[in-house]
C-alpha cells in the first residue's frame, strides 16, 4: 500500500494568504504551513495514470476516489 501527502493547490495557498492579510495586516506572522490540513493529511495512492494530456494519480480521500496531478504528490512511501 502506498501512502502520500499532497501539496495544496495554488488557489488554497493564495486564499490563506489573502485571508491572513485581511484579518491581521501582517504577513510576517502567518501561521506555519506545516499545520495546514493539505500538508498533514495522508492519502492512499491507488494507481498512476499516464495519458497524452498528463500524468495523474488516483488517490482515496475520505472514501472517495480523486484524480490529482502527480506534481502535487510529496512524501510518497510504501507501507
Number of helices: 2
| Major sheet details | 5 strands, antiparallel
Q: Provide the gyration radius in Å.
A: 15 Å
**Global shape:** elongated
Q: Any idea how many domains? A: 1
Helix content: 10-25%
- Portion in beta strands: 35-45%
Order of helices and strands: EHHEEEE
Per DSSP E runs of 2 or more residues, the count of β-strands stands at 5
Distance between the termini: 5 Å
Strand order of the largest sheet: 4-3-2-1-5
Low-pLDDT ranges: none
SS-based class: alpha+beta
| Whole-number mean pLDDT | 84
List its salient traits.
79 residues; alpha+beta; 5-stranded antiparallel beta sheet; 5 strands
Q: Could you describe the 3D structure shown?
A:
With 79 residues, this protein is α+β, with helices and mostly antiparallel strands. It has one domain (2-78). It has helices spanning 10-24, 37-40; strands spanning 2-6, 42-51, 54-61, 64-69, 73-78. It has a 5-stranded antiparallel sheet.
Care to give the gist of this entry?
It is elongated, with a radius of gyration of 15 Å. The termini are close together.
SSE layout and pairing:
Elements: E1 2-6, H1 10-24, H2 37-40, E2 42-51, E3 54-61, E4 64-69, E5 73-78
Antiparallel strand pairs: 1-2, 1-5, 2-3, 3-4
Amino acid at each position: 500500500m502506498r501512502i502520500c501527502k499532497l501539496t495544496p493547490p495554488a488557489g488554497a495557498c493564495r486564499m490563506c494568504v489573502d485571508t491572513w492579510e485581511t484579518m491581521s495586516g501582517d504577513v510576517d506572522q502567518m501561521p506555519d504551513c506545516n499545520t495546514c490540513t493539505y500538508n498533514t493529511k495522508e492519502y492512499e495512492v491507488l494507481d498512476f495514470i499516464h495519458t497524452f494530456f498528463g500524468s495523474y494519480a488516483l488517490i482515496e480521500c475520505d472514501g472517495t476516489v480523486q484524480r490529482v496531478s502527480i506534481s502535487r504528490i510529496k512524501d510518497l512511501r510504501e507501507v
